[in-house]
Specification:
mainly alpha, Na+/H+ antiporter like fold, 17 helices, 0% strand, membrane
Length: 389
C-alpha cells in the first residue's frame, strides 16, 4: 500500500511541476503527462515498472474525453458539413494507403507493416486537436466542425482495422464478425440524424437528479460508460459510444449538470492515458536510433499535413485554412497507438517496428502543439491574394 501511495504521490508531484514549467512555455498539459511518464518510467527512474495497469485506466480517460467532446460539439444542421467530413476522410484514407504502399514497396516490408503504416497516416489525435480548438474558441468554426467530424469517422474506422488484424492473425474470421460493427455504424447514423433534426426522447423523470450531486456522479458515469460498453460490444470503440452519448445528452434539458459532475474524472483518467504513453517509450531504443526516429517523425507529420491540406483545398477551403487544418491533423493519434499495441500483441509486427512506431507516434504527440503553432504562424504571413485562393 505504501509503495502505491509513494508512486502516485510522486506522479502527481511530477505532473504538477511539469505543468508549471510548460505553462510558461505555452505548451498543453498532455505534454506534461507524457514527459512525466517518461521520467517515472522503467527506462529512467524506474518508479513505475510497467504501463499495463495505468494504460488500462487511461483508456477510460479517452472515453470520458470523447463524452465531453460530444457534450460540447454542435452537430451541424447543414448536411453539407457532414458530407464534407465523409468525403475528406475517404480521400485522406485513400492517399494514406497509397503513400503507405509506396513506402512499403521501397523498404520491402510485409503486409502487417503496410497496414500499420497506413493506420499511422490515417488516424489523428482527438485529444490534441479538440483541446487546441477548445482553447482557441474554434470548436464551432467550419474548420473545427469538419475536423472533429473527420476524427469521429476515424474512430469508427478503428473497428474494421481490428477485424483486419484478426483476419491476419487467425485467418478464419468470418464476415459475421463485421455485422455488429455495421449495425453500430447504422445506429450511429440514425442517432446523429435524430440529433440534427431535434427528434429526441426527453427523459423527464430524471429531473430529480438535478438536486442530488451524488446521484449526478453515478448516473453520469453509468450513462457515459454504458454507452461505451454498448459500442464496444458491437465491435466499435468505447470512445465512439461515449461520444454519441455526449451528443445525445447535450440536447436534453435533464443532463445540463453532467459536465460539471464528471469533469474531475475526465482530467484524471486522460492524464493517466498520456502518462501510460510516456511509460511505454523505450528511451534506450530512441537514443540508439534517434536520428532515424526524428527523421521519420518529421516525415510523417509533413505527409499528414500535406495530405490533409490537399483534402481541405479540394473541399473548397482557402489555402490558408487548408494548411491550418493540415497542421491540426499532422500528428498521429491515440487510437493509432492502440492499433499498434494490438498488432504487436497479435504478432502482426515485430518488436523493432513496434518500438519505432511507438516512438514516432509518441514524439509526434509531443511536437504537435509546436507544429500547429509554427504552421499557423507561417500561414499567417502568406499574402492574402495567395491564401484566399
Amino acid at each position: 500500500m505504501n509503495n502505491i501511495l509513494f508512486s502516485v504521490s510522486i506522479l502527481c508531484l511530477a505532473i504538477l511541476l511539469l505543468i508549471f514549467l510548460l505553462k510558461k512555455l505555452h505548451q498543453p498539459y498532455l505534454v506534461a503527462y507524457i514527459l512525466a511518464g517518461i521520467v517515472l518510467g522503467p527506462y529512467v527512474s524506474g518508479i513505475f515498472h510497467s504501463a499495463e495497469n495505468i494504460s488500462t485506466l487511461g483508456e477510460m480517460g479517452i472515453i470520458f474525453l470523447m463524452f465531453f467532446l460530444g457534450l460540447e460539439i454542435e452537430v451541424p444542421d447543414n448536411k453539407s458539413i457532414l458530407w464534407k467530413a465523409c468525403i475528406a476522410q475517404l480521400i485522406k484514407t485513400a492517399l494514406s494507403l497509397l503513400c503507405a504502399f509506396f513506402i512499403t514497396k521501397w523498404f520491402g516490408w510485409h503486409t502487417g507493416n503496410f497496414i500499420l503504416l497506413a493506420v499511422i497516416l490515417t488516424f489523428n489525435s482527438t485529444a490534441v486537436v479538440s483541446e487546441f480548438l477548445r482553447r482557441n474558441g474554434e470548436l464551432s468554426s467550419d474548420i473545427g466542425k469538419t475536423v472533429l467530424n473527420i476524427l469521429l469517422l476515424q474512430d469508427i474506422m478503428l473497428a474494421p482495422v481490428f477485424t483486419c488484424f484478426q483476419w491476419m492473425e487467425k485467418g478464419n474470421t468470418s464476415f459475421a464478425h463485421l455485422l455488429p460493427a455495421i449495425a453500430g455504424c447504422v445506429l450511429i447514423f440514425f442517432l446523429l440524424r435524430a440529433v440534427r433534426n431535434r427528434n429526441l426522447f426527453q427523459l423527464t423523470f430524471l429531473k430529480e437528479i438535478k438536486k442530488d450531486h451524488e446521484l449526478q456522479v453515478f448516473a453520469g458515469g453509468f450513462v457515459c460508460l454504458g454507452f461505451a460498453l454498448l459500442a464496444a460490444s458491437m465491435g466499435l470503440t468505447g470512445a465512439i459510444g461515449s461520444f454519441i452519448a455526449g451528443i445525445y445528452l447535450s440536447r436534453t434539458d435533464v443532463f445540463n449538470w453532467l459536465e460539471s459532475a464528471l469533469r474531475p474524472f475526465k482530467i484524471f483518467f486522460v492524464a493517466l492515458f498520456f502518462v501510460s504513453i510516456g511509460l511505454m517509450l523505450d528511451i534506450h531504443y530512441i537514443k540508439a536510433h534517434y536520428s532515424f526516429i526524428i527523421a521519420v517523425t518529421v516525415l510523417v507529420m509533413i505527409i499528414n499535413s500535406l495530405l490533409s491540406a490537399i483534402v481541405f483545398k479540394w473541399l473548397r477551403f482557402t489555402w490558408k485554412d487548408s494548411f491550418q487544418a493540415g497542421a491540426l491533423l499532422a500528428q498521429t493519434g491515440e487510437f493509432g497507438l492502440l492499433a499498434c499495441t494490438v498488432a504487436f500483441q497479435l504478432n502482426i509486427i515485430d518488436i523493432d517496428f513496434f518500438k519505432t512506431a511507438l516512438s514516432v507516434m509518441g514524439l509526434s504527440l509531443l511536437l504537435s502543439s509546436i507544429w500547429i503553432t509554427l504552421l499557423r504562424k507561417v500561414t499567417g504571413i502568406i499574402p492574402s491574394t495567395i491564401a484566399g485562393n
